[in-house]
Amino acid sequence: MEKIFKLPDVGEGVAEAELVEWLVEVGDTIAEDQAIAVVTTDKANIEVPSPYAGKLTWKSGEPGDQIAIGAEFAKIDDMKGDAPATAAKPAKAAPAPAPKQAAPQTPSVPQTAPASAAVSSGSSKVHTSPAVRARAKSLQIDLGNVAGTGAGGRITHYDLDQFLIAAIRAEASSGSGPAVPTPKPAPAPAAGPKPAPFVAASSHGKIQVNRLSSMRRAISKKMNQAKPGVPHFSYVEEVDVTDLEAMRREMNAKADGGEKLSILPFIMRALVLSVPEAPYVNALYNGDRQEVHIYDEIRLGIAVATDKGLMVPVIGNAQKKDVYEAAAAIRHVAEAARDGTASRDELVGSTMTLTSLGALGGIASTPVLNPPEVAIIGVNKVRTAPVWNGEAFEPRQLMNLSCSFDHRIIDGQAAAKFVAAMKRRIEACEI
After folding, report:
1. Which of 92, 223, 273, 403 has the highest local Cβ count within 10 Å?
2. At 63, which CATH number?
3. Which residues pair with 356 in a beta bridge?
4. Do 151 and 7 belong to one domain?
5. Catalytic residue positions?
6. Among candidates 21, 35, 26, 24, which has minimal Cα distance to 63?
7. How many distinct structural domains can be found in the chain?
8. Count H helices, E strands: the chain?
9. Are 19 and 128 within one domain?
10. What's the domain range around 149?
11. What is the pLDDT of residues 369-419, one digit of tens each?
C-alpha cells in the first residue's frame, strides 16, 4: 500500500525548507526513521527521517527547490497492501487451502525499532530516541555509560550534555587528556546545485542579482517584525571587569590544558542569577491576546554568526548551569549552529537572548529584540581605560552591557534594576 509522506514541521515559524540533497533514490528500500533527505531552513541543515518502512516510489523536487511545510514530500510503498487482497480471493474459492498458499507470497519487510525502543549497549538495555543515539554515535559515547534522567530512565540530550561536561571537568582537573574520544566534526551535507546569479547590464556597469537565502529571508522577516512592531528601548551600562578577568585567568591557569573559559560564561551566570530580581525579562509577549508569559526556566538564546547568517540556538535550563557547564553549553550550541547539527529543541523556544561580538563588539550597541522575547543582552568588547580611584588614575578593564527591552512590558526602572544586578555580580565576582 502506497503511503504519502508530507514534509514535517522542521522549525518554529518555518513555512518552507530548501531541499539540499536526497539520501535515497526511487526504488530503494528504506527503514522506518531512516534519513531520506537533507533540507535547510533559516536555522540549520536538518535530516528528514521517513515515518514508514518500505520502497520509495516517488520523491518531490530537486536540490535547490523550496518545499512548503506540509507539502507532499515522498511516496513509500510499505509492500503490505497487495498481499491481503491477493490472499482474500482464493480464500473464497477454497477456504481451507487458500490461506496456506497465499502466506508465502506476502512480502517480508524488515521490522525496525520505534523511537522509544530499547537498544542494547553491552549487557544492559538503553532507552533513548534515534536522535540521541545518532548524536552519541557521532560523539563516540557508549550509551551504557550514560545515566538517564528522563521518564523510565530514558537518556535525553541533556544527559549527553552532562556526560560531556563531566568529561571536560575530569580533563581539566587531571590534565591527562580527554575522558572520552574527541569526535571529528561531521562533514556538512553536500550542497545541491545552486542557480547562477543573474547578471544584468546597466549604465553603471554589470549588476549581479542574488536571491536571498532562506536564512536571510527569515532574518529580514524577523527584523521587519521587531523594528516597527515592537516599541523597544536600549540601556547601556559600564561594568568594571578587572577583577573578573583576573579570576578568569587564574581559573584558566589551573585548568592545565583543559577547558579554557572566555568571559561569556561569566556574563551568562550573572544574567541568570539576576533574572529573579526582574522576572519580566525572561518572558514572551503575545500581542494578539495581550498576555505576558513569564517563565521559570531560562531558555537562553545565544546569537551565533554563521556562514549563512545570524542564528540563535538555545540553551535550556540555563539557570541550572555553573560557569563550566555554561561554557560547554555555549560551545556546543555554537558549533551545532555552524555545522548544521543542532536539534530542533536547540533551535526554538528561547525566552531571552544573549549576544556578543567578542573583540569586535565595539564600545556600545543597540541590539534588536527577537520577538516575542522582551529582552536581549548585548556584550561589548573589553577595553582598558584610566579610572580615578580617589587618589590617582589607575588602568582598569571596562566593558559595556548594551541591552534592549520591550517598552510595552518593561519600564526603564525595571530594566535599570536588572542591569544593575548584573553589574553588581560581575564586579563582585559573585558568579
Report:
1. 403
2. 2.40.50.100
3. 379
4. no
5. 407, 411
6. 21
7. 3
8. 9, 23
9. no
10. 121-174
11. 988 899 999 999 999 999 999 999 999 999 999 999 999 999 999 999 999
